[in-house]
Each structure stands twice: as structure tokens, then as C-alpha cells.
Design goal:
Length: 197
């Protein structure tokens, strides 16, 4: 039986808090592999992405080089239309054995909005949820689990709190403030050399 983690996001850009989340989920849940999946058109983000899909894909590739348990997956960039998690997980499930486990890695701030997602009940049937607290959003609280997700589908994970966001990284770049140590070195160099933001 395989245990596969899925960490999706705009990754605009990918930063150290993303990698810490993936790493802790892998360790605490004994995952064989974590798929990092850049979204094509994030349904919940009104402004879309700032970097191109290919730039975001390349930044994820740079960020995970040297970590064999992390794998870049471009499934959402191959589809047209919005990137719905339920479609992505269903497609990944089709490539796995029936008894393999899929863990959707997510921050508490996003998980509490789960009921508003596209077809959340179906998604909860397809995978388990590795849920981590987020700075400013508090810790995982079973009393506030979304109605669409049965409590036995949730696996809280403990992740060191790193107050880093892609929005803040982009803002720092625009304002000429330091951002070097918020990113993997290769991603920092790529952004700097290509003036992405």
C-alpha cells in the first residue's frame, strides 16, 4: 500500500513554508511521496496568478530538486478551465491501487472554508485530509470541522509556524525589501535573474 500526499497551490512563488508543510506531512503521516501540484486557474483567487504557469512550474521544480520524496505534478496545468481539487484527486486516484491512501495536505485557514469548495463531499470520499494550523488562523479545532468532511477523514499535523506567504514575498520584491531567506536559494536566484515580479 502506498501513502501519497498532495500539496496543491498557486506557488506564486513557492516558499519555505510550503516545503516545511510538505516535509512535516510526509514525516508525521509516513507518506511515500508528496506530489506538489501548481494550479492552472485557482477558483478562489480573483486575480489569478502573477507569474506564468511555466514559471511557477519551473520554480517548484527548482525548489524540490534533491528531495526524492517530493515530485512535481503538472496535471492541473494540462487541463483547461478552473483547477478543482476534486477533479485532480479523482484523476490521481485512477493511477493508484484501490487500497492506496491519498492525503490532501492543507492549512487550517483553507480547510475551514471547505464547505464552499466544488463538490466537497465527493472530495472527502476520495482522500484523507492532513490539516495544519496556520499563523493568524489558529490551530486545528475539531469543533469547527466543515460539515462536508467527516471527522474520521481528518489527520491534524503539527507544523512549525512560519509566517511566510507568497503575497508577502511578491510585496517585498515590489517594495525592494529583503525576501532572500523566505525562499529556497534556487528559487530566489531564478526570480532575481528573470525579474519575475
Amino acid at each position: 500500500m502506498q501513502r501519497i500526499g498532495i500539496l496543491g497551490g498557486t506557488f506564486d512563488p513557492i516558499h519555505l513554508a510550503h516545503l516545511m508543510l510538505a516535509s512535516e506531512a510526509r514525516h508525521q503521516l509516513s507518506l511515500d511521496q508528496v506530489l506538489l501540484i501548481p494550479s492552472r486557474i485557482p477558483p478562489h483567487k480573483q486575480n489569478g496568478a502573477f507569474a506564468s504557469a511555466q514559471q511557477r512550474l519551473h520554480m517548484v521544480q527548482l525548489a524540490i530538486q534533491g528531495e526524492p520524496a517530493f515530485k512535481l505534478c503538472d496535471i492541473e496545468l494540462q487541463r483547461s478551465g478552473p483547477s478543482y481539487s476534486v477533479d485532480t484527486v479523482a484523476a490521481i486516484r485512477e493511477t493508484l491501487a484501490e487500497h492506496d491512501e491519498v492525503y490532501f495536505i492543507i492549512g487550517w485557514d483553507a480547510f475551514i472554508l471547505f464547505d464552499s469548495w466544488h463538490n466537497p463531499r465527493r472530495l472527502a470520499e476520495l482522500c484523507l485530509f492532513a490539516v495544519a494550523g496556520r499563523p493568524g488562523a489558529g490551530t486545528v479545532d475539531h469543533r469547527r470541522y466543515p460539515e462536508s468532511c467527516p471527522p474520521d477523514r481528518v489527520r491534524p499535523i503539527d507544523v512549525p509556524q512560519m509566517s511566510i506567504s507568497s503575497t508577502d514575498v511578491r510585496s517585498r520584491i515590489r517594495d525592494g525589501r529583503p525576501y532572500h531567506y523566505m525562499l529556497p536559494e534556487a528559487v530566489y536566484q531564478y526570480i532575481k535573474e528573470n525579474a519575475i515580479y
